[in-house]
Amino acid sequence: MTGRGQVVAVHRSGSHSFSKFTEDEGIVLVPGLGVQGDAHAGATVRHRSRVARDPSQPNLRQVHLIHAKLFDELVQAGFAVFPGELGENVTTRGLDLLALPAGTRLRLGTSAQVEITGLRNPCAQIDRFQPGLTAAVLERDAQGRLVRKAGVMAVVLEGGPVRPGDAIEAVRPALPHRPLVPV
Known about the structure:
Layout: E1 2-12, E2 21-22, E3 27-30, E4 34-35, H1 48-53, E5 63-67, H2 68-76, E6 90-93, E7 105-108, E8 112-119, H3 124-129, H4 133-136, E9 138-140, E10 146-148, E11 152-158, E12 160-162, E13 167-171
Parallel strand pairs: 5-6
Antiparallel strand pairs: 1-2, 1-6, 1-13, 3-4, 3-12, 5-11, 7-8, 7-13, 8-11, 9-10
């Protein structure tokens, strides 16, 4: 089963800053590493808290994707937060990222391909960016389970450029599907 969406914006930062800079001309994905020139690119973990625990862990967070609908919701709730400011590399529209199972492959543009590894777990940095924002990116479903809305994480399978306006094609893995969990 497939789904389609579009790249709204792309972002990167060479430093371990919370927000990432919008790259109007695009970014380049590198297989097994992530976004060329981004501080979180690497075969092993790059997020500081994870490096402190075990720097040899594989990097399951090479690319961070967030659906633009989240920014729409946050602005309506009174937060001034826009694409790139939550640290994502790719802002998307038209594809429900949170509903995809683990292992879903996303073709971005003409050649890049990533595989979704799991959910981004909102951290304390979000509230340091704007007080109350952590609660706004979390909610409870009808069964009372926590829903993390801060996007999905992925690894790069095939490299290539990714630009605003590029098409996204999602291909779900074979059944049985594994639900997304924080990585």
